[in-house]
Amino acid sequence: MTFLKSLQKVVTALAAAVIVFSVISFSGLGVATAKADTALPADTDSSLQIDAKAAIAVDTNTGQILYAKNADQALPVASMSKLMTAYMVLQAIHNGKLKWNQKVTPGKAAQEVSQDTTLSNVPLKEGHSYTVRELYQATLIYSANGAAMALADAVGGTQKNFIDLARKEAKKMGLKDVELYTANGLANGEVKDGKYPGAADDAENKFSAKDMAILSQRLIKDYPEVLKTTKITRMKFNNGTDQTEMENWNWMLPGLAKAYSELPVDGLKTGTSDSAGACFAATVNKDGHRLITIVLGAKHDSQEDLSRFEETQKLMSYCYNNYTYTSLAKGTTFKKTNALPVYHGKDLDVKVSLASKTDVWLKSGVSKDQLSAKAVGNKKLYKKDGLQAPLKKGQKVGTLQIKAKDQPMYFLDGTDYLSADAQTTTEVKKANIFVIGWRAITSLF
């Protein structure tokens, strides 16, 4: 009898200890870890001959990269830099620091640069004020260099302060291969007294194609209203006493020189200089699927050279012709997907599925059946080494990292998989104290 009482005390103590200090170790399976940055190949498809120094094509929504050539190489981008200026202006508008009808009197440097007829400009009159909206439209539609500098003064107070703010914003966006000196993309010495102190006169803005794609994606996703302006083909700018006719330098817009009815382009920005060549950040929304393409360093033999638009058309057509835009419904499950561990649940793990509809571009010949996914739990929902029970059916508990068997995948965030929210496929109730205790005991043997 004494022996039985002693044994009962030992068992009770063991069970209590394990309940307090935890039980089963899952060795961290299914817990979110830091992302690894997957390097892009120099050329993801050598069969596509893009005649430019660098190029990239991405899905605007997911950041999936459909094509890349030298996409990590920092190169001069000239007036494509104005996309960063536009982003900073829209950010200031949304933060209440600027208003569209707010009057801006261009500073000396901005006004002097605006008078240079060898550059793309609307002439800004000394002492005259213009609305933020007018300067913004001139910057995006006609690539007006003085107007971009006037906006930079409005946002930052000075050209230097604006560039400092833009550099911080670029870092927040995760842009890694960027140099910024001017708000308009001119070389540092070309912006008169607005040049960035301590930098050489020939210093100029540089982006990699990948970073320009990230900036373009952020611009469209954070401030989609930008497309209402970038799609404008022609507009007049009021100089105070006369008007300047502005025709958009994006000649792929409807009605312009390189428009193509099969590709309804509605943005974004060109850039041209001797060092940059012809550059173009473009976006197209075909059949409800929006792409962003970047072409850097295309041929530019004259102002009438259409090379950057021809290479962009080739790149866009390649994406739509060689990939299938594939929808994955909410509740979709995948082959070989691991279950996630559950802490103190009646079940020790739970299977997961897609928590909401998502989409992926699959190369021709690759089907949904070739997709697989790894489940990764949300560590904030974990206790010890598992999701804390109870869990509801359909509860978001982490992510699915989706890959295709015969198709390498690349994304702007540096991953090699499509990330989508994961939900539980069943309810998991919390185990009672006796079950927990028994598991504790059996785990000791």
Question: Can you walk through the features of this model?
Answer:
The structure is a single chain. By secondary structure, the chain is an alpha+beta fold. Strands 2-1-11-10-9 form a 5-stranded antiparallel sheet, with helices on both faces. Strand 7 (234-238) and strand 8 form a beta hairpin. It has 10 helices and 21 strands. Belongs to the peptidase S11 family. It is an enzyme of class 3 (hydrolase). Residues 325-411 form the Peptidase S11 D-Ala-D-Ala carboxypeptidase A C-terminal domain.
Keywords:
445 residues, alpha+beta, 5-stranded antiparallel β-sheet, 10 helices, 21 strands, 27% helix, elongated, disordered N terminus, peptidoglycan synthesis, Peptidase_S11_C_sf, EC 3.4.16.4
Short description:
The strands form seven sheets. Strands 2-1-11-10-9 form a five-stranded antiparallel beta sheet, with helices on both faces. The chain has a four-stranded mixed beta sheet with strand order 14-13-19-18, with no helix packed on it. A four-stranded antiparallel beta sheet has the order 15-21-20-17, with no helix packed on it. 27% of the residues lie in helices and 24% in strands.
